[in-house]
Amino acid sequence: IRTVGGHVGVQLNYVSHEIVKEKPALPGLPSTFPGEEDCDTLILHLEDQTTGLTAELIYTTFEKVDVITRSVILKNTAEQPIYLTKVMSACLDLDCTDEKYDILTLHGSWGRERQMERRSLMHGKQSVGSVRGESSHQEHPFIALLSENATQDTGEVYGMHFVYSGNFLAQAELSQFDSIRMTMGIHPENFVWKLEQGESFAAPEVVMTYSSEGLSGMTHHYHDMYREHLIRGEYRDKKRPILINNWEATYFDFNTDKLLKIAKQASKLGIEMLVMDDGWFGHRNDDSTSLGDWKVNEQKLPGGLKLLVDQVNAMGLKFGIWFEPEMISPDSDLYREHPDWAISIPGRVGSLCRNQYVLDLSRKEVRDHAFESVAAVLHSTNIEYVKWDMNRQLSDLGSVELPADRQGELYHRYVLGVYELQERLLAEFPHLLLENCSGGGARFDPGMLYYSPQIWCSDDTDAIERLKIQEGTMLLYPLSTMGAHVSDCPNHALGRVTPFETRGHVALAGTFGYELDITKIPEEDRQQIPAQTAMYHKYNDLIRRGDYWRIASYLENGSYDCYMVASKDKKEALITYVQVLSRPNFHSRRVRLKGLSPENRYRIEETGEVLGGDVLMQAGMLIAPLWGDYRSRLIHLTEA
Ligand code: DGJ
User: Which of 262, 285, 301, 580 has the fewest Cβ atoms within 10 angstroms?
Assistant: First the structure.
């Protein structure tokens, strides 16, 4: 903290505590909830008598999923304002003097999100973070501490994951006495929050878990935690409609006619929803204009949106639409009318990124306008899905409404603004399926998951690159949350050509959909779509509800990937095997399965062979080399 006198010391002493059988929600923030489970919450009340700052440290236990959540509420009870300059949401001190530890983080970039990275914990502080205004492509608001010998299924793992979508810091420190301190919270860089007398500040929540069964144990805790205590809404437990999105099919070059042709083909092949992506509004024919002008471009969609949606619905397809509500193009009516609505520093020309500025969502009138623009479109016709995109990071931070000593609040106020907007949207349209997105997967975080049951994972739709991206994502997130589509080849992100079948198998791990011009792809690919959509319907319940197990990692071994999902009752399992590069004169691979019951006997659907769960887990099964690069196989087991 900093006081008006410029002092930075704070001493929070114990005052009292209480234990309640509930979990209080955090004002304005996404947070986990008890659901069906009984939760105990310990609230420690602390006070610094000199400054009048009080703190509530809030710990909730989720026993069934082995999770403790932690957040903090600070309050100024004195007359003088207090400036908060650093608020970590959780701090974990571990006295581990004998053992060596590693840390695991998820690193990335556009098109390469959430790649797992493990390194030894050394003396001093090691951290990852974001000061980009969003959780970011580059780092993920997650850190885990692993005993040095921990593996996929053995050893100790302590995970910390932040339910927040803005700037964050995740840090591990090995001290002079070899004790370890793990901290997580809003990044202190450019953060100053003024607390006037009586005002409070709620710090977002951290979800912490411990596993003695390596990474798999941690993954299972997070998956069950998020499925049961974070994701909301009617789609949480439901199969999602198979969608076809026109982004990679047409980019900005589309009209009603083209979309209807895509929809018509799609409807015949088992696809259930058409999503119209960027470019339907203002005069947006490339990425240089019109964000903020959420009025249909009638040159592209003559007769308006309703006419298009009615025709799509008449073909038996649902309709979804793309928005980027947080943004404003300098070339837009909105910007010409309200240039001060963009985040900017007075007197400085702000940096453009993808030709756009960011709306100042700390201002109520700006939020109201953004909400009303989106709501008006959604009310105008039968729209059942929204892809909420966000395509630039924040820079040149300044808000015309905030006084000088509150400018340091803007990053966080922005995130609170996004949360408020999405909450309003869900309240107004409770049946809407919302998919968050940020230039691919730059805001794939537990905060966003509270509002949307699925998030676009990456703009890289290449099946082989996706193996790495999806492995990092599945480490923490239930498979049902991972936006994954079959796209056309050569792949638009890197030019690779992979079999259509493999693209389907890899997308099956996530929400499953298509991102291609179905009227133009090779006939032999198109012919595979009915079988692929049937495959989705056959396996999606298992994939959404089951336990995910990692068997082999392409990221680690450089040659093949293998993972499986086993149903909770252990009666069914689906194994996905992807051989990346083929090798001449190579032997079969032995794949040892996981998560089955050793007592059960399982029938392998493809061969009819029946084997014991113990055999499949200990001796494993042999997978013969596949002919050609980038080939894949699905293996389905049911109880015999
Ligand atoms: C980034 C998204 O990730 C893409 O899927 C697409 O919606 C574009 N934005 C549109 O501008």
Answer: 285
Query: Which residue CA neighbors atom 9 of ligand 1 most closely?
Result: 439
DSSP E strands, 342-429: 357-358, 385-388
Using pLDDT thresholds of 50, 70 and 90, give the confidence band for residue 452: very high
CB 572 within 8 A of CB 544: no
Evaluate whether 103 touches 126 at the Cβ level (below 8 Å). yes
- Please indicate whether residue 389 is annotated as part of the active site: yes
Beta carbons within 10 angstroms of residue 237's beta carbon = 14
The residue to mutate among 285, 437, 511, having the most atoms of ligand 1 within 8 angstroms of its beta carbon, is 437
Collect contacts of 489-497 with beta carbons under 8 A, ≥24 apart. Answer: 491/460, 491/461, 491/462, 492/248, 492/461, 493/111, 493/459, 493/460, 493/461, 493/462, 493/465, 494/111, 494/460, 494/462, 494/465, 496/462, 496/464, 496/465, 496/630
Q: Whose CA is nearest to atom 6 of ligand 1?
A: 247
Q: Which of 360, 459, 460, 488 is catalytic?
A: 459
343 near 410, Cβ under 8 Å?
yes
Give the residue, by CA position, lying nearest to ligand 1 atom 10. 278
Cα 111 to chain center, whole Å? 14
Report the candidate in 361, 356, 358 with the shortest Cα–Cα distance to residue 329.
356
Query: Which residues approach ligand 1 with their CB closer than 6 A?
Result: 247, 277-278, 322, 389, 391, 437, 439-440, 456, 459
Q: How far apart are CA 275 and CA 250, in angstroms?
A: 12
Helix, strand or coil, per DSSP, at residue 418: helix
Q: Which residues pair with 635 in a beta bridge?
A: 575
pLDDT digits (tens, 9 = 90+) for 103-117: 999 999 999 999 999
| pLDDT one-digit tens code per residue, 72-105 | 999 999 999 999 999 999 999 998 767 899 999 9
389 C-alpha to ligand 1 centroid (Å): 7
Atom of ligand 1 nearest to the CA of 277: 7
Report yes or no on whether pTM surpasses 0.85.
yes
Nearest CA to 224 among 209, 204, 240? 209
Q: In the annotation, is 333 catalytic? A: no
**Centre of ligand 1 from the C-alpha of residue 488, in Å:** 16
DSSP 228: H
Q: Contact at 8 Å (CB) between 384 and 433?
A: yes
Tell me the two tokens of residue 492: 């638009």
